[in-house]
Amino acid sequence: MTGTSRGSLAALGTIEVLVLYRANALIAWYLCVINALAGPMNTVQQPASEVAYTLIVPKEHYQRVSGLQSL
Q1: What would the mean pLDDT of 59-69 be, rounded to a whole number?
Q2: What's the CA gap between 46 and 50, in Å, rounded?
Q3: At a CB cut-off of 8 Å and minimum separation 6, what does 34 contact?
Q4: Which structural domain range is residue 11 located in?
Q5: 1 pLDDT exceeds 80?
Q6: CA 33, 12, 49, 3: dihedral to nearest 10 degrees?
Q7: Per the confidence metrics, is the pTM higher than 0.70?
Q8: Exposed, middle or buried: residue 10 (CB in 10 Å: 0-12, 13-18, 19+)?
Q9: What is the pLDDT of residue 24?
Q10: What is the pLDDT of residue 60?
Q11: Which of 21, 31, 46, 60 has its CB surrounded by the most CB atoms within 10 Å?
């Protein structure tokens, strides 16, 4: 699965939560399912993005980028 597909699935999960919330149909069980589906995507995407930052950002800016990621 590509990074774009993982990002799209994460975005769809967020939209799904919003739709369920607005329809007053959001229950804890739905959140558990959405998080269970999004969790594996994050375990792949987060380390990949950290590697990409080290390839793109000069070493003197690592601390700044790390702070922005935390934000």
Answers
A1: 87
A2: 6
A3: 13, 16, 17
A4: 3-70
A5: no
A6: 110
A7: no
A8: middle
A9: 93
A10: 92
A11: 31
What contacts 45, CB < 8 A, 6 or more positions away?
A: 3, 6, 7, 10
* Domain total in the chain: 1
DSSP single-letter state for residue 57:
S
Beta-carbon neighbour count of residue 23 at 10 Å? Answer: 8
Distance in angstroms (rounded) separating the CA atoms of residues 5 and 27: 26
pLDDT for 70 equals: 78
Tens digit of pLDDT for each residue in 4-54? Answer: 566 677 788 889 889 999 999 989 998 898 888 888 877 877 788 888 888
Return the residue matching tokens 């375990």: 43
Six-digit token pair at 33?
Answer: 């399912």
| Residue 6 amino acid letter | R
Cβ atoms 3, 41 nearer than 8 A: no
